[in-house]
């Protein structure tokens, strides 16, 4: 199915590669599921910019613990584990859901993971604090804690710590990139012992939040997750504000925060191999975000690949395009030693 590009991967007889190269086989792999495992207990922080409507009584930029949300205003974060039976340690894909950093949850089933299972990998799906629970960098820290959990429990779940893959779509793609790229200064206390990230799979994730502050489709999500400004009141528009401008002009502090939370800020030699999937007609995360990431990875000589889906939007691809994207992702992972 992969044609000439599959020659190296498919040169062996009856290999695991042949199994994952056939999407029809993806639904037949049996896995063991363990769900609702608590991997971290973290604080909830009041984020005024992510509220449904601005509260004039809360000054800009004020963050405070949310009362009555559990012991000391905390929340338990959960993950699910889907184990592929194997006599030897398996690669593990840490899956991070999307939702504009504001909503969403880990998948309720493993139906979209069949390609990984067929390739002999296990999958861990993680919960993280959304922007209402806590603004940036909370979600990045939560994913880093999930990676620490993977390392601490590798023996129990038969994970290969040399083949940890992070994968996410939309906001989850951004968090996957930050999990693989951001420096150790993002690691929260108690979550510093993490495995190396062997590869990153980024499905149409934001890569430049400075641009995201102004690009159509992502402006609200970006401001709200950064948590540094409140929307301008609709009833009293700022003097001289352009028609339709919902947010104040970014201050130097906002721009600095946006750069700090942008994967593009941390591009440097030695980063994990990265595969990008995006539609060329995405109206939520501008396609230039993926293009700029690939350009930067090329300049830093980081192994990378990209599947640009013609006419594709922000996800919602056809079954054919989704299967193609998964096949190309698996081929890339195999070429870079992350799967067999």
From TrEMBL:
SUPFAM superfamilies: alpha/beta-Hydrolases. Residues 79-297 form the BD-FAE-like domain. Transmembrane segments: none annotated. InterPro entries: AB_hydrolase_fold, BD-FAE-like_dom, GDXG_lipolytic_enzyme. Coiled coil: none annotated. Keywords: Hydrolase. GO terms for molecular function: hydrolase activity. It comes from the Bacteria. Pfam families: BD-FAE (PF20434). PANTHER family: AB HYDROLASE SUPERFAMILY PROTEIN C4A8.06C, ALPHA_BETA HYDROLASE. This is Acetyl esterase/lipase. The lineage of its organism: Bacteria, Pseudomonadati, Acidobacteriota, Terriglobia, Terriglobales.
